Amino acid sequence: MARETFEAKKKRALKIIEVLKRTYPDAHCALDHRNAFELLVATILSAQCTDVRVNMVTPVLFKKYPTAEALAKSSQGDVEKIIQSTGFFRAKAASIRSAAADIVEKHKGEVPRTMEELTALRGVGRKTANVVLGNAFDQNVGVVVDTHVGRLSQRMGLTTHTDPVKIEQELMKLSPQGDWTLLSHLLIFHGRQICAARKPRCAKCALFELCPSGAKFVASGEAAGAK
């Protein structure tokens, strides 16, 4: 089988995005938030944790600490107690408190609006910054690569990389900048509903004809419902 050219892969990627947009017209950020500060904190808490669990914790956290100023003045122990169920709670409590302190000290209490300033905050990496910039400030600076995005990108033959940064770089080349934030939501929705880590529902997948892995999963019996 001939190796797919970059031009052919990009054309296929655009078709994938088109189908996903039709399939998931309501795709959006699943982390509940009312502003950039809440989204920043929620995203940090979402590491190695489900969005559902984070959404159960943040209302309590933000009721007590509604601003960066308030969170910066909080006690480590109290924050740990509130967010304990999200896992890695000691490190996460330290991260959100430190980020809040940075926001107060360096940005007058306002969440910064650039990749450079966000990633300079303690506990904030590129993935978290992308979430905030794309969803709170409507800036398509990059593509958020979580476990769903990474898995689907590989299965669909859009990348052979496993490193999130390299996957992001490849997806940015294959998709229009205006779709970068939405692309993550589309892939996450599809990953949760159809393209599961185990037993993907290939027979019900709208992308079956565009995905090089679908027929392989069905033939090998790895797909849900496959014999």
3D architecture notes:
- The protein has 227 residues and is mainly alpha-helical.
- The chain folds into two domains: 97 residues, Endonuclease Iii, domain 2 (Orthogonal Bundle), CATH 1.10.1670.10; 101 residues, Hypothetical protein, domain 2 (Endonuclease III, domain 1, Orthogonal Bundle), CATH 1.10.340.
- 58% of the residues lie in helices and 0% in strands.
- It is built from twelve helices and no strands.
- Helix 2 crosses helix 3, helix 2 packs antiparallel against helix 8 and helix 5 crosses helix 6.
- The longest helix is centred in the middle third of the chain and has 19 residues.
- The protein is elongated and about 60 Å long.
- The model has no long low-confidence stretch (mean pLDDT 96).
- What is the CATH superfamily label of the largest domain? Hypothetical protein, domain 2
Biggest sheet, in brief?
Answer: none
Helix content: 55-70%
CATH topology of the largest domain: Endonuclease III, domain 1
Straight-line N-to-C gap: 26 Å
